[in-house]
Amino acid sequence: MSIRTYKSISPKLADHCYVDASSVIVGDVECAEHVSIWPLVAARGDVNYIKIGARTNIQDGTVLHVSRTSEANPNGFPLIIGADVTVGHKCMLHGCTLGDRILVGMGAIIMDGVIVEDDVFIGAGTLVPPNKTLKSGYLYKGNPAQQARPLKDSEVAFLKQSALNYIKLKDEYIEETR
């Protein structure tokens, strides 16, 4: 795995994290317990920080990045991902904030300043434009993202189960490398 320091700041990985050897994690990136980072993920905390919550999984080919500070935006946009989040394959998360228990479908793009509340499904291929807020308890899909319908109870339950499934899988991968 490529975990690299940038400007004297090194990524911080809590206990029981898994980072695939083909992924690149650079700079100010913090991963809580049981986070899994799968093949070919790039997480670049160079001009701002990235924080990933407990039991979250970032799947293959996803890009995680941030926006720098500026006169117009003094804090820039860090990337903050909550707990029990499943980020599907080949997503782009850029300077946004995701709450807890979210599923980001494959190929989704979530842009600067977006806030995604807890318990949300984002459909595959969805584009969430800058500064939009996705309210809790809904499926969003489309380009640009639109609220499609309320989540069913079974879908809300699946959000937590998806995270638990990936904890089991990452533990199997860790065991294989011992």
From TrEMBL:
Descriptive protein name: Carbonic anhydrase/acetyltransferase
Pfam families associated with the record: Hexapep_2
Keyword Cell cycle listed: no
PANTHER family given in the database record: DYNACTIN SUBUNIT P25, PROTEIN YRDA
Gene3D superfamilies the record matches: Hexapeptide repeat proteins
Biological classification of the source: Bacteria, Pseudomonadati, Pseudomonadota, Gammaproteobacteria, Alteromonadales
Presence of keyword Transferase: yes
Molecular function as annotated in GO: transferase activity
Organism: Paraglaciecola psychrophila 170
This protein's UniProt keywords: Transferase
InterPro entries: Hexapep, LbH_gamma_CA-like, Transf_Hexapept/Carb_Anhydrase, Trimer_LpxA-like_sf
